[in-house]
Design brief:
Peroxidase, domain 1, 4-stranded mixed β-sheet, single chain, 16% strand, 180 residues, alpha+beta
């Protein structure tokens, strides 16, 4: 759970910076390129994590080898991860960034319920969520009988759980703590 929070914070900070500078699509392109590099060359992460290689050597490698394939800002982002000893999170950061931002301004989201929901209601829920999050959503609706009732929305790694199952679990936990 802590790792997911760290990953999300780094990605959201970098993408907020990219949004201010109006190069979000270029930032997503950098994350896509890094995903390809990590897939083709898993040794890169081992190299960047190796304690016997100095920070200056790693930064020099980023500038000379990766610098031509990535934006200057993304190279600085990689150096920041090195400086803060967070480079081990790079694969998770890349995955989170692509899952969250690779659909342009749209974010993947899923809506689950026990029974089919009227398309008009799904659209109203989508608009309400978009308004609250200030993001466009690509919302897909599905069924999950384990919810018992209510709805559950998953947006990236955030879950909004309004299900009966969750409410029953909370009630059970309260009863456990209230026992004498």
């Amino acid at each position: 759970m802590k790792n997911r929070i760290i990953i999300k914070r780094y990605v959201e900070a970098f993408m907020a910076y990219a949004g201010q500078a109006s190069w979000v699509s270029a930032a997503v392109g950098d994350f896509k390129n890094m995903a390809k590099v990590l897939q083709k060359c898993p040794e890169l992460l081992k190299f960047l994590q190796a304690p016997e290689i100095t920070g200056h050597q790693k930064e020099d490698f980023i500038d000379r080898v990766l610098g031509g394939d990535f934006s200057r800002e993304f190279a600085q982002f990689l150096k920041l991860l090195l400086e803060k000893s967070r480079i081990e999170f790079l694969p998770g950061i890349v995955k989170y960034a692509l899952d969250t931002y690779s659909h342009g301004n749209q974010v993947e989201a899923s809506l689950k319920s026990v029974f089919p929901i009227d398309p008009g209601l799904v659209e109203r829920i989508k608009l309400q969520l978009e308004s609250g999050l200030n993001r466009k959503l690509k919302l897909t609706a599905g069924l999950d009988p384990e919810l018992l009732g209510g709805v559950q929305v998953t947006i990236g790694n955030m879950v909004i759980d309004g299900s009966v199952r969750r409410r029953l679990k909370e009630l059970e936990e309260k009863m456990e703590t209230a026992r004498v």
